[in-house]
Amino acid sequence: MPMTEPMNRHNIHEQLPRRDRMQLYNFTGRDVVLWERNIGDDGDDIGKRVWPSAVDLCHFLQKGDFPMQDKKVLELGAGIGLVGIVASLLGADVTLTDLPNIVGNMEENVRANTKEGCKYPPKVRPLVWGRDLHKIKGPKEGVHYDYVIGTDVIYIEEVFHDLSVTLRHFCDPRTTVLLGCHFRVKSRDLKFIELFKKDFKIVKEHKIPGQGVNKILFEARMKGFDVLDDPAKNH
To answer: Does the keyword Methyltransferase feature in the UniProt annotation (predicted)?
Structure first.
């Protein structure tokens, strides 16, 4: 089945091979060893493998484009944990989230790669977008996230509204949102961007080197906040 065919909850598992495999990366001068488990066994396979935008964002973080030291970070759709692990190794206080059946393997990967060298032990939490969001502390409970991040989270139109609600819930005017997007079905995926822009201002579109126009890292803030007045952005 070609990847250009629209994905939905019924056919997404048909687009991925069934296997376990180890993936090796090197970030922050360290090897990061990740296991992709049971790929292709059910309809939530999308969270069981490393997707390209996650690797792209890690390169941005490693270069220091978005300072992580002592920043509080919430990752949505963290999958097997690559971005959250790299952010933790760079000194951030990270909470990684994904569906309940995904977090088991994520937690194993996070634990194995962050035993040493992390100022803040990363936390892994189950989260279904749009549901029981209060179970993870956010601005309403007095918790500020410097960054809310998500990579390759725009893929099923059915959950666009829930993702938008979740982003609004965990952001405050000082939060920087980073969304790494690979537009596979551009007409569909841009529908989320239009929905997202109702509440957030896209500050900058970071182009992914060598990837043409189909991959972009969006940097955004909630509307009504002037980024130029934020001293945290003067880095």
So the answer is: yes
Q: Is residue 175 part of a domain?
A: yes
Q: Which residue is associated with the tokens 């970030």?
A: 27
93-98 vs 123-126, strand pairing mode: parallel
Residue 88: name the closest of 118, 113, 62 by CA.
118
Greatest Cα pair distance, the chain, in angstroms, is 49
**Pair type for strands 176-182 and 215-222:** antiparallel
| CATH code of the domain in which 198 resides | 3.40.50.150
**Residue 226 neighbours by CB distance under 10 Å:** 9
Number of domains in the chain: 1
Confirm whether 1 is domain-assigned: no
At residue 56, φ and ψ (nearest 5 deg) are: -60, -45
Encode pLDDT of 2-48 as tens digits: 344 555 555 544 554 557 889 999 999 999 999 987 765 544 556 67
Of 16, 11, 4, the C-alpha closest to 41 is: 16
Q: CA angle, 208 as apex, 25 and 180 as ends, to 5°?
A: 75
Ranges of residues in the chain with a pLDDT under 70 are: 1-18, 39-47, 210-213, 225-235
Question: What's the pTM value of the predicted model, to 2 decimals?
Answer: 0.84
